Amino acid sequence: MAAIKILCVDDEAAVEQLMRQYFRRKIRNGEYEFFFAQNGVDALSVMYNHPDIEIILSDINMPEMDGLTLLAKVNEMRNPALHVIMVSAYGDMVNIRQAMNNGAFDFAVKPIDMEDLSLTIDKAIERINFIHETQQEHTQLESLKKDLTTARDIQQYILPQAFPPFPEESNRLDIYASMEAAKDIGGDFYDFFRIDDDRVALVIADVCGKGIPAALFMAISRTIIRSKGMQYTDTGKCMTESNLPLVAYSADCMFVTVFYAVYNMKTGLLAYCNAGHNRPVLLHSDGTTEILPKPRNLIVGAYENASFKEDTLQLETGDTLVMYTDGVTEATNLAKEAFGLERFCTTLSSLADKSSHQIVDAVRASISDFAAGAEQSDDITMLVLKRK
After folding, report:
1. Which of 87, 121, 136 delimits the end of a domain?
2. Cα–Cα–Cα angle for 244, 248, 253, nearest 5°?
3. Same domain, 181 and 41
């Protein structure tokens, strides 16, 4: 451990000898390292050459620059680890009080009680160590914050960002999606990819938990589901085969809810597997809404022997399927009221003639208005498919 550097500022030569004699063991053991100056001007020069000095023992009454002026100069340095202990005659309480009001850490009176001064220095060292620990923790937090910002950028890069995703199919379908993390990084994700000339796969999912663990499991889940989706055309089979490796990767009982669908652009038929996820809302062209049936499949990544079944849904021209995570319906306002599925459907009913992008923007605006400044507690993710 490095020695505590102490600057003693006093125009009396005997003070230096007293300090060296009384603290000789600590000096010899490398615990203390003393520096000496005769006035404030000399002290500033010593501090310039030794910026790691952390304790100043300063007399108040000195030539050229007194202790109060030196204290003012030290305050301008804005170093929270630099502690000033003022020393003056017992009868000089006016100046001592002024020094304490101006930010001195403590004081000692002449003739100096060396035992009491030693305790005062120990107290200052204890506080200095606390400040260093706090500064180190702050540095670590700043580093973590930077890492989280980088992770957020990477996560957003992982999710498809180009819309429309299949511009060559713009006459047959309209897709848009967004993910707004509650923290720097989240556990929600969406995805879509082409299966063949007429079919595209769509995924929306919500990993349990938040933060870095959920984000890592999210990245693994997306990769596995996309890989299995290219191998198995049956959506239930895709989820069954995705479940096995995700169980193996799951730590601390992590799992993911998934709505996985394969949409036929030619026929409008949507084959899907809802693995414990929120029930999507089918918005018809006339503004009526229909909530898909409750999922009959388990969550993904929790049970090794789970099997998953496929269901189908026919989309007519103008129909829109709105997929979402629970961050939408469970968004709360300042009164702790939930946005809710009913309010969500009411919002959608006025958007039947809108594009998928406009629908997502309108729902997000409605949630924001409802929340009225309440903190977002969960990721808000939507994936919208419209048959044209």
Report:
1. 136
2. 105
3. no
